[in-house]
Predict the structure.
Amino acid sequence: MTSLLTINCIAAEAPRRDFDEHVLPRVLTRWSGEHRVAHLVSDEVLPTHDGYSHLLLNGSELSAARENPRDTDLIRCIRSFADADKPVYGICYGHQMIARALGGACRRAAVPEFGWRRVRRVDNPLWRGLEDMITVHSHYDEVHDLPDAFEVIASTDDCDVQAFQLRGARVWGTQFHPEFSASAGTAMLQDNLRTEALAPRHFVDELDDPVLVEANLALFANFFASGSAGV
C-alpha cells in the first residue's frame, strides 16, 4: 500500500490553507494512493515513517537559516523516512530542511532569487520526461556545504544548489517550486514584488511558454513512482 505524508510547512494561515485547498490537489493528480496532510505550525505530533511510503515537504516563509520552534520535530521526521529508505522530496524550505537534517547547512543567500527561471541540470531520474523546464523561484536562503553523500543535480548562476539527490537513496530537494501552475506562480511573484523589498531588483522573467509549467508535474510523478519502480 502506498501512503503519502505531506507536511505543510507554511506558517501563515491564509497561504497554508491555500496550499491545502488549491496547490496540493494539483500535485495529487499524479498520486494514486492514500494521503495525509500534517501541519508544521500546529500542536500535532509529526509522524515518523511508520504507515507511510513517501514524504513530501513544501516551502514556507520560515527561514531554514535560523532556528525555528519545530526544527527538532521536522528533522526527526525527515531522518525517520531517510533511515527507512523511503522516498523523500522537499521544495524550497523543505529542500533546505532535508539538507540540514542529513548533514548539510543553510544560509542567507548572497543573491536572492525571484521570478521564472530555467536551471542547469544533470541527468537524474527526477527529471524524466522534462526536457525544457521553467520554474518559479522565491527565496532568500540557500543550501550550502553539502557532504559528499549528496549529488548536486541542478544550479543557476545565483544558486549553486538548486536541486540535490542523496546518493544511492530516493531523497531529493529542489530550491525552485514545481508545484505551482503558471497563474499561481505569477500571482505569488506579483505579491513578492509588492511586499519584498529586494524582489524588484532581482526579478527575472524567462517564462515564454506557460505550457512548460504544466509539464513540471512530471517531477512529482517521477518522485511518486520511486516508491515502487526502484528509481
Summary: The chain has a mean pLDDT of 96. The CA atoms of residues 51 and 90 lie 19 Å apart.
